[in-house]
Amino acid sequence: MKNKTLFKFFALMLLLSGLPLLSHASEMVNSGLAPAISDDQHYNRAIHIMAMLLVGFGFLMVFVRKYGRSALTATFLLVSISIPVYMLINSNTVGIHENDVRRLILSEFCGASLLIAAGAVLGRLKMQQYLLLGLLFVPCYMLNEWLVLNGGLGLVKAGGVVDTGGSIVIHAFGAIFGLGVALTMTTKQEFEKTIESDSVSDRYSMLGSMILWIFWPSFCAALVTPEQMPATVVNVILALCGSTITTYIVSVSLRKKVSIADIANAALAGGVAIGSACADATHSEAVVIGILAGALSTFGFAVIQSRQQKWMKLIDTCGVTNLHGLPGLMGGIAALPIVRGLDIRQQLLGIVVTIGVAFVSGMAVGKILPLMGRKTEAYEDAEEFLDAVE
Amino acid sequence: MKNKTLFKFFALMLLLSGLPLLSHASEMVNSGLAPAISDDQHYNRAIHIMAMLLVGFGFLMVFVRKYGRSALTATFLLVSISIPVYMLINSNTVGIHENDVRRLILSEFCGASLLIAAGAVLGRLKMQQYLLLGLLFVPCYMLNEWLVLNGGLGLVKAGGVVDTGGSIVIHAFGAIFGLGVALTMTTKQEFEKTIESDSVSDRYSMLGSMILWIFWPSFCAALVTPEQMPATVVNVILALCGSTITTYIVSVSLRKKVSIADIANAALAGGVAIGSACADATHSEAVVIGILAGALSTFGFAVIQSRQQKWMKLIDTCGVTNLHGLPGLMGGIAALPIVRGLDIRQQLLGIVVTIGVAFVSGMAVGKILPLMGRKTEAYEDAEEFLDAVE
Amino acid sequence: MKNKTLFKFFALMLLLSGLPLLSHASEMVNSGLAPAISDDQHYNRAIHIMAMLLVGFGFLMVFVRKYGRSALTATFLLVSISIPVYMLINSNTVGIHENDVRRLILSEFCGASLLIAAGAVLGRLKMQQYLLLGLLFVPCYMLNEWLVLNGGLGLVKAGGVVDTGGSIVIHAFGAIFGLGVALTMTTKQEFEKTIESDSVSDRYSMLGSMILWIFWPSFCAALVTPEQMPATVVNVILALCGSTITTYIVSVSLRKKVSIADIANAALAGGVAIGSACADATHSEAVVIGILAGALSTFGFAVIQSRQQKWMKLIDTCGVTNLHGLPGLMGGIAALPIVRGLDIRQQLLGIVVTIGVAFVSGMAVGKILPLMGRKTEAYEDAEEFLDAVE
Q: Does C217 contact chain B (CB < 8 Å)?
């Protein structure tokens, strides 16, 4: 690899590229009073997020080659159960004064977190178990949201945690919840069964990845003020650019050849990690966060994942630990040096509470799900779908 | 299936989930005078609808495994013929005062209806016949639009029919027109040829389905006022959630295993059926309409379709009867109890006129199309495409 | 082909369809002072363009059947390198006063042009060479942008060239740059290796094509004033409709059967060619431009491409000459009769400068890239990707 120096040059160049931009981004945010964001702006972002939930998460999970019909049907069911249930509970607690489109976006955030959790056990649940998973997940997610963001029980001060794009309460929560479920449920046979992909499933998976990449700025900027929007969306895109290039470089460096699964997944880690500080970071900070997150996530897929299986005795089908778990936590922590006036204790407390609630409730749900039986053939459509020919 | 009770529990839970929301949705609609919707809002919805027409309808029809190139090319041609022809006729009748982007949306509605009609005879027309179908369809569609919505001939009072999202004039019209064409054209050989799908075509089909699902709120809310928008889009999403979950439950119940074709199609029935009343229903009514439409549509695919072939002596390739025909009519009728101040006679008259115009004109077009010859190998690209290797 | 007369009838009908619309479109543009386009409008279009870059260009290039993983990874890398580098240089030259979202759109335009250039040598670069290509392309593109649009060196008067949707500086520039690279780099072995596609890669390619078609109006209207927007987007759609139908007709006429590659590519030529005059043309002019561009592009794919290989001794993998090169130049020239008050000398000068800068810099980059070595197996993933099984 005589091109290694060139790689390093690219990486450095990219890193430096952000520096001159450093000065002006922060001026644009938090500048005075925020005019209300219109319903129509909220609406367009809500649709973008829906594209992420269905085509994005859905097709990303199609990488399991014989489980495509199931992954897509499960995605449909998880979205369709979480949105009405979240909206129902929210309207009965927060009240009907909440704006309808804003409530929709909050429910989509919950759906995203659920899809992440489901990714950890993908291919090993029956269809109806995905529905039950969704029903049980939503209240747990809302409990954590209430504790960490809305001052529930007085544990964490309302507004004390900065998590604009959901690194902590959406990504890390979903991943850790999913790990909890997987920890309780993974069977011995499942360790022996390899998860296969092929050229068709790989390309479907890249479609899902690209849809997530494209609309990620709308996810992070869904609820920011119009003043914060420009800097926020550019930050998200720069972080994604950083993680995408870094993923390629680290994947080749660690494995000799590129793994398309690394590209499809770890390229998105910049979006996960910029979440907490997306409205506050400068553009160069965003690039740096993206680069670090891409490296961390690729290292996770290439090195940690196989060891995690042995250490934790669980299989994380989609590697949500590496895409959402670690980069999510990193994003929550990255806010500490970046966000001016952030109460460090509150932010750390929010992270700790999220880890606790997610892990305990995930474990509990992992005990409940097997009461509905177990899928006999992991990672295969044929058990549950008619005419599931190749 | 010891999980049947669990299914019922889910269904009931989902049904009830809407009830507490019942009170406040209707307050949001029709509240005073409507500010003009901006060109930019119209524009964003026009693009969303275009995504539905091309990727949505196009890929949904790729389920026929050897006919993918043809289905996508036909989609391109049907959209490209219907939009300019509609805009031309509209600008010469309604006049140039109509806003350009609004006219675009109206022409896209026509394109959607045409794609539905084409779905009934998919795989059995030559490429140039799709073009001719488009040319002949547009004036018929516009005649019905004029009669039912704009007071043409004084048959139905202008504004007397409530059909915001087009359950009647778009979905039912397209499906019945397509049935008319299929009724006249289906040949004996076509009854013997099975329509094959495989794991690749199934996943493409699910992509189309998801794109339709995602952007459906923009279809129904394309022309509503900004005040009506929030409640409308949430209604559409809730109806889709209801039909998606119900489709899964009914598909498993009727067939023992899930049919991915049921999921890809009937999951959308909630969007079809909520069309007429989408701006007027409460959220719980929307959930109920979605559940009923999903059940009706899945029953159609699982039970009615094979009998319809014998009774009506026609093949409906995509099952548009079950996705657009029956749920569309159901949507038009569902408006009766839901929309306050609706003139029941006018609404029923609108439905009857639509059925009549669609069926008669569809039959006539079915007589004209074979004048251009017949496709010899149904459901196969190879006859018309170069190098159409597997 | 007794249907030929019918084809001609369609073509004529389509052509005439625009005429009655002729009068009123131009009233809508340039009408008095332009209110500032909002950040949110810019933002929505920026996301649409991002969908074109990743899923649009990315999947269009998946037509090479064994090179799908590589084409998609290369797309990710090209976008991720060009956007930050463009933004960095732009913010250090134009200054930080440029609006963040507007700057993002300008950088996406650069990314589009880069993807076009890369299409000419697709399958014959190593992954790291795509990165280097991106690094070298951006300054060349920006040099041309500065010379042709911003009055750099006083060569062309600032504002003297009309190129709203980038026919000249985006499409033609990218295509000619790519040809320059291909001219220098194409090896003998590459002439012997056929570029294979199959039914799966063809359908992926059509997905890319449709995504480009759908969002093309946002590309052309990204920076126009709100007054110009309605006429502009309708013009783009009419041009695309014209080129799509014409592509089908010309493809069948020249080849006896339809080539799906013609459909996936040449159908978009209307969007390329309407670029320069999209905000100024009448609707009927847009239809005519679309029809001519579709015919030119299809003729290019069916007739010119194989001869170009021999004459120019280069392989243009994606046929960017025929989709972006010729229709781009045609679009720049089509502005001459259409745009009122256009300085013909300036417009032609802009075209000539673009051709010169693109070709010379492309040739230079084609000399530099091989310094990083050469891909041994053209058009195949396996050399660079792990487990690249079929």
A: yes
User: Chains with 3 or more CB pairs closer than 8 angstroms to C?
Assistant: A, B
Query: What pLDDT is attached to residue A10?
Result: 53
Nearest to B229 by CA among B18, B44, B23: B44
C306 lies within 8 A of chain B by CB: no
CB contact under 8 A, C18 and B88: yes
First to last CA, chain A: 39
- Note the helical H segments in C260-325: 260-266, 269-274, 283-299, 305-312, 320
- C-beta atoms of B24 and A96 within 8 A: yes
C-beta of residue B111 within 8 angstroms of C-beta of residue B55: no
Closest CA to C163 of C276, C309, C65: C276
Contact A67, A123 (CB under 8 A): yes
On whether any CB of chain A is under 8 Å from the CB of B200, the answer is: yes
Please tell me the predicted confidence (pLDDT) of residue C184.
93
Q: Which residues of B360-379 are buried (b: 16+ CB within 10 A; e: fewer)?
A: ebbbebbeebeeeeebeebb
Residue A163 falls inside a structural domain: yes
Query: Tens digit of pLDDT for each residue in B237-253?
Result: 999 999 999 999 999 99
- Which one-letter amino acid corresponds to residue C327? P
Helices (H), chain C: 4-17, 22-28, 39-51, 58-60, 68-93, 100-120, 127-148, 173-185, 188-192, 199-220, 229-255, 260-266, 269-274, 283-299, 305-312, 320, 326-338, 344-368
- What's residue A19's pLDDT? 40
* Best of B22, B42, B203 to mutate (most A CBs within 10 Å, chain A): B203
**Which CATH number belongs to the domain containing residue B148 in this structure?**
1.10.3430.10
C91 contact A CB<8A: yes
Instruction: Count other Cβ atoms within 10 Å, centred on residue A140.
Output: 22
Q: Which residue among A213, A230, A240 places its CB closest to the CB of C101?
A: A230
Q: Note whether residue C29 is domain-resident.
A: no
The pTM assigned to this predicted structure is: 0.93
**Which segments in chain A show pLDDT lower than 50?**
1-2, 11, 13-35
C88 touches chain A (CB under 8 A): yes
Helix (H, G, I), strand (E, B) or coil at A359: helix
Contact A76 B260 (CB under 8 A): no
A159-186 per-residue burial string, b: 16 or more CB within 10 A, e: under 16? ebbbbbbbbbbbbbbbbbbbbbbbbbbb
Name which of A44, A85, A207 is nearest B17 (Cβ-Cβ): A85
- Distance in angstroms (rounded) separating the CA atoms of residues C290 and C270: 4
Q: C380 — contact with chain A (CB < 8 Å)?
A: no
pLDDT tens string A252-293: 999 999 999 999 999 999 999 999 999 999 999 999 999 999
Q: State which residues form the domain around C302.
A: 41-372
Q: What is the pLDDT of residue C38?
A: 85
Confirm if A302 and A255 have CB atoms less than 8 A apart.
Answer: yes
Residue A13 belongs to some domain of the structure: no
| pLDDT tens per residue, range C242-269 | 999 999 999 999 999 999 999 999 999 9
Our count of domains for chain C comes to 1
Q: What is the pLDDT of residue B94?
A: 72
Residue C83 CB neighbour total at 10 angstroms: 27
* Rounded Cα gap, residues A254 and A257, in angstroms: 8
pLDDT tens digits for C186-232? 888 888 899 999 999 999 999 999 999 999 999 999 999 999 999 99
Return the DSSP state at C281.
S
Task: Please state the rounded mean pLDDT for residues C74-82.
Answer: 98
Does residue A70 belong to any structural domain of this protein? yes
